[in-house]
UniProtKB/TrEMBL annotation:
SUPFAM superfamilies: Protein kinase-like (PK-like). SMART domains: S_TKc. It is a single-pass membrane protein. This is non-specific serine/threonine protein kinase. It comes from Hordeum vulgare subsp. vulgare.
Length: 245
């Protein structure tokens, strides 16, 4: 893809231009694209599909910085968990990426749409904090989810990606002065709330991707002055593939 993947934009390598970074509006647009894609996979693709390995390196960016999901190597068709038991040898198992896998995968290994929701929440937290879930600071009982929970909402500015803080300098000054009803600040809080609801320990307490996509479109609409800019690139890709098959 012309603009590579999300990982290279969030975490600059030694040979990459240090000036290349994503502003808040771009991050919201990208994560809205991904929410739309997962919503399509889970609810509108005919038979629900679980990606199983959502992470920044599998989020590809086209020439217009629209995001598409890549690497469906371990994607699974969804099978109703009520029809399966933990000991069933034909139950679906998943091998995702450390830090992004839902905690229940370590216990039973069964893939679920709830697992994709959890991974989405982790990616969203990574986009807002600038830290990988495998960062050295997250060890023992401290995870990226726990770290954000401990500081949200009163100390939100303390854990934001420094590049986001730099982009929002004027807003930060107003927030420090006690003006907390600014659209940018409210969008940040809304994004963090969505991420934390996606990463609840219990799968049954998480949002589903239809709910997540709806929330993301609302946040995106606020930041685009009322214009909803959700991407249809994933549906176009599916249509193109079906025509070639």
């Amino acid at each position: 893809m012309p603009n590579g993947n999300l990982d290279t934009w969030l975490h600059h390598q030694g040979n990459q231009a240090t000036g290349r970074h994503l502003g808040l509006a771009q991050r919201i647009s990208i994560v809205t694209n991904i929410a739309d894609a997962l919503d399509y996979l889970h609810h509108y693709s005919g038979r629900p599909i679980i990606h199983c390995d959502l992470k920044p390196s599998n989020i590809l960016l086209d020439i217009h910085m629209n995001a598409c999901l890549g690497d469906f190597g371990i994607a699974r068709f969804y099978i109703d968990s009520k029809l399966r038991t933990v000991g069933d040898s034909s139950s679906i198992t998943v091998n995702g990426t450390l830090g992004y896998m839902a905690p229940e995968y370590a216990e039973n290994g069964h893939a679920s749409t709830c697992g994709d929701v959890y991974s989405f929440g982790i990616v969203l937290l990574e986009m807002l904090t600038g830290k990988r879930p495998t960062d050295d600071m997250f060890r023992n009982e401290l995870t990226i989810v726990r770290f954000v929970e401990m500081n949200f909402p009163d100390h939100t500015l303390n854990f934001l990606d420094c590049r986001l803080v730099n982009d929002c300098n004027g807003t930060i000054d107003q927030i420090a002065a006690g003006t907390e009803n600014l659209p940018i600040f409210q969008s940040l809080l809304s994004l963090l709330r969505v991420a934390l609801l996606c990463t609840r320990q219990s799968p049954t307490e998480r949002l589903n991707m239809r709910e997540v996509a709806t929330q993301m479109r609302k946040i995106n609409m606020v930041n685009t002055g009322g214009r909803v800019e959700s991407s249809t690139s994933f549906r176009r890709l599916v249509s193109w593939a079906s025509q070639r098959s």
